[in-house]
Design goal:
10 helices, alpha/beta
Length: 325
């Protein structure tokens, strides 16, 4: 995700604006870094290949028995760019309104963090459909009939029961029963409950109450301290809740940063194009300038103009230089 800020008068502004932006972006508290495995990428599309499980160890009788991993589904992550620009007006600099100027990169940084959070939450908000993402089996993240390659066995990780102590315990047991395509247990141990703000109270009662929830007996609360509760305001459905094994979540829930959030200055704000001269072109222009007194005079005038307080932009193309020579 890239962020580009266009500064109309960047040469007049405090270079600390970039630091203001990066400091604000780096503030702790975002859910994306807590839930996703953050990885870098240098490709337009990243691919991930699922590998199946192995059977149990065999008794050694003189030779080693080998097993091959069963290749599972191949999934892809295609990157997209996200940008936003700001402009710093000349009058703010002239009027010494740096408090206003400094607030703009902060606002841009807050927008950046909010955008990342919304994209991260969209995976959970659309976990029961394929509008945002689908697995290798072309099914939603949460489905009642996930499939394995090379077997007709299906497995579900989706339910419709409202959040309660009873539902949490039932889901914990179902998770522990999950198997791979070799029918071996995956050893899932749910340790985290993710809820929207509407279910925060219910979730905390379930995992923090000393005695059994909703009971007249003096039984202990089996769920006390067993789960970490994460409340995410970005979750839009007030009834949906998720139980996850944080170990597997960090292993398989991936977030790729092709370009980390950054703060750049660009004169051509609308197209984001940057014009520059190559080394050879500059050498040729220097040679032409050395042979033309008129061009030397023009370049001197240009330097004086750039150092003035004029607010207009001047551009001399290589073609114009050749014509002048």
């Amino acid at each position: 995700m890239g962020v580009i800020a266009s500064e109309n008068f960047g040469y007049l502004l405090d270079p600390g604006l970039r630091k203001i932006f990066m400091d604000e972006v780096g503030q702790p508290g975002d859910m994306v870094s807590k839930l996703f495995s953050i990885e870098k990428s240098n490709k337009a599309t990243e691919y991930d290949l699922g590998i199946g499980g192995l059977g149990d160890l065999e008794e050694f009788t003189g030779t080693i028995g080998y097993s091959d991993f069963e290749q599972q589904y191949r999934v892809s992550y295609t990157h997209r760019e996200w940008v936003k620009g700001i402009k710093i007006e000349r009058k703010l600099v002239d009027d010494d309104l740096y408090n206003v100027i400094n607030s703009r990169p902060k606002a841009l940084a807050m927008t950046t963090r909010r955008t990342r959070e919304k994209h991260g939450a969209s995976l959970f908000n659309n976990a029961f459909n394929t509008s945002v993402a689908s697995g290798g089996d072309a099914l939603a993240l949460c489905s009642t009939a996930h499939t394995y390659v090379g077997t007709s066995t299906t497995v579900g990780n989706s339910g419709t029961t409202a959040l309660s102590a009873t539902a949490v315990e039932a889901t914990r047991i179902l998770g522990m029963a999950l198997t791979d395509e070799t029918d071996n247990l995956i050893d899932v141990m749910y340790d985290t409950i993710i809820v929207p703000p509407n279910l925060e109270e219910t979730a905390n009662i379930i995992v923090k109450t000393d005695k059994q929830v909703g009971s007249d007996y003096n039984d202990i609360n089996f769920n006390k301290g067993r789960y970490n509760v994460i409340v995410w305001p970005r979750l839009t459905d007030t009834n949906n809740w998720f139980m996850v094994d944080s170990k597997y979540m960090k292993l398989y829930l991936k977030w790729f940063d092709r370009i980390s959030p950054e703060f750049n200055k660009d004169k051509d704000f609308d197209t984001l194009n940057v014009e520059s001269l190559t080394g050879n072109s500059k050498k040729q222009m220097d040679e032409i300038a050395g042979n033309s007194l008129e061009l030397q005079s023009l370049m001197t005038d240009l330097k004086e103009f750039v150092n003035s307080n004029s607010i207009e932009d001047w551009t001399i193309s290589r073609q114009a230089v050749l014509q002048e020579a």
